[in-house]
Amino acid sequence: MNGTRDYHQDAFVSFRPNSTDDGMVKGKVLLAYIIEPFLLKKGEKIPNSHTHYHESVLMAQVFLEMGYAVDAISYHNTTFQPKKDYDLFISARTNFEKISKRLNDNCIKIAHLDMAHWLFNNKSAYDRCIAIQNRKGVTLPLKTKLQEFNWAIELADYATILGNRFTLETYKYANKQIFRLSIPTCATYSWFSGKDFKKAKKNFLWFGSSGFVHKGLDVTLDAFAGMPEHHLYVCGPIEKEKEFVQAYYKELYETPNIHTVGWVDVEDSTFEELRNTCVGLIYPSASEGQAGSVVTCMQAGLIPIVSYESGVDIDTNFGLLLPDSTIEEIRKGIIHLSNMPEDQLIAMAKKAWEEARSRYTKEVYAREFKAIIQEILELEKGKK
Q1: Residue pair 276/201 in contact by the 8 Å Cβ criterion
Q2: d(Cα 359, Cα 115) in Å, to the nearest integer?
Q3: Going from the N-terminus, what domains does the chain have, and what CATH number goes with each?
Q4: Torsion (CA) 191, 197, 201, 205 in degrees, nearest 10
Q5: Helix extents (H) in the chain
Q6: Mean pLDDT of 67-94
Q7: What is the pLDDT of residue 145?
Q8: What is the pLDDT of residues 293-315, one digit of tens each?
Q9: What is the pTM of this model?
């Protein structure tokens, strides 16, 4: 602790629905998730650096459209004391326990699970660090991906979850009713007709945020360092992990076929260039909820080569799954894809794009979330 506190943590914002069928507010909702988009000044855009900014806004919009008043706080808020009763409480795992215990007993409590269970997540993170220690002879600190202990799933009445069957299975022990949600991408793209797949077929992208070892940048770099005829473009906040850069400086900056780009906004022209330059995405993450970087790249028409633990459902018609995310598996996946004829690559890329367009959008997220809330309300009504 550095003794300072982000004022966003204590922010409290209230919204009322514009109108309802009978002119009455149907109930009150407490939303504890990402508060920042509710504090933007007029004209400021919702950030594209993470999908959760959009998720939080979409949740609030759904409740307002259903006729509920919404109070929004940060999921980091530890001091919030409710001054009213709530009909529903939905919150990310952090501080779920603390906040839920302060609410009225008849409030329906819903945990929003945006990561695999913390036990699995943290074990996976340490396993990756031990693997790089054995392979590289260096101990790297964990960055951003180590979850705090929490008992959100145990205390929740229901849960929503971002992810695939893997993610869901890490919470199965709690025997709670869990509803799957499809993560919304921050941006969508038109299909490109002029991409040269013959040139692109040996170019690949690693695209992610902090937590490079956890998200498999290390094994990706090691794979491409031994494949000089294939090119890797690395997009992420490289400057934030100095120890990682020190350990992989040669691969990042002195290897001719590896191009370190840095952080890229998904609506920037640089990303447009990369989606035209590369044929696919490499993302061998150890554990996720549902990786926004994967579905964003699918939206951009890139073929995913990813781990099962990335939390994204991958069909062989549009991508490749890495069973164990080893360096050798990554190399085999790269060679397999780059040896395919161009017409097959175009078909796979088109199917990846179509899958993302039909499943991972803000519209789909809002529709799925509304249906889940309606089902929960019906289940609760049936208990009375």
Answers
A1: no
A2: 19
A3: 7-118+129-133+142-185+361-383 (3.40.50), 197-359 (3.40.50.2000)
A4: -30
A5: 52-65, 96-100, 118-136, 152-155, 165-169, 197-200, 217-225, 242-247, 249-253, 269-277, 292-299, 327-338, 342-359, 362-383
A6: 95
A7: 57
A8: 999 999 999 999 999 999 999 99
A9: 0.92
